[in-house]
Hints:
9 helices; 44% helix; globular
Amino acid sequence: MTTEHPDDARPAPVTAPQTTDSASFPGEPTLAEDLLLLLFQPGSGTIAGEGTLYYVLAGAVLADLSLGEHVQTSTGRTGSLVVGAVGDRPPADPLLRTSWEYVAGKARGVQTVLAATGPSLRQPLLDRLVDRGDLHRRTRKALGLFTSSVLEEGDSGRRARVLGEVRAVLVDRVEPTPRTAALAALLYGSGTMPQLDRDIPWTSPVIARAEELTEGSWGAEASAKAVTRTVTAVIVNSVVAAAAALPR
């Protein structure tokens, strides 16, 4: 399988800054990187949920900004939910900073931010995963004429570790860290969890647990970050609504 994907990005209602110079950032993996890594399907070399991927990845970036207390939500003049930057807390990661800068000058609707910032995220996130060794990218020729890019699981072992953490939360009901709770909720919100049934059983108890996380019920460990948890839950629910409205 190749890594080519449909050109399904919807026109953004406004223009977001382009993601640049972010592939080789040496910091810790972002939430969006780990989400994309979980969506990678080792058996086929494809990414699950391509049709809604840009919304989901943008939601993961916003959730990361929320967990780092770089953004906050409020109610706009029309009563809709808007997200704005915490002015004195720009993130160090350039990929996260691009989205932060987009809401720094003006608070914007969550759905607007998802649509405007999401389409440019896939490639730099994949580049990061390759740079870290979480994925390998190689080229091959078909019929001796056409060259295509193929993704394979890397040898870092990170996908298995992250998947194990999410499984423990969803299946064994282990109390999650805020980050793992957000990751599990975003994975559920992406609508792709049935494709992970071999690793995370698609059962009623798992669905119920995922819905709890989506609503911000994260357990005692997250209680100290109640505001952050609430903001992240709002963002995740915006991703769920956006993903559900798009064709699969």
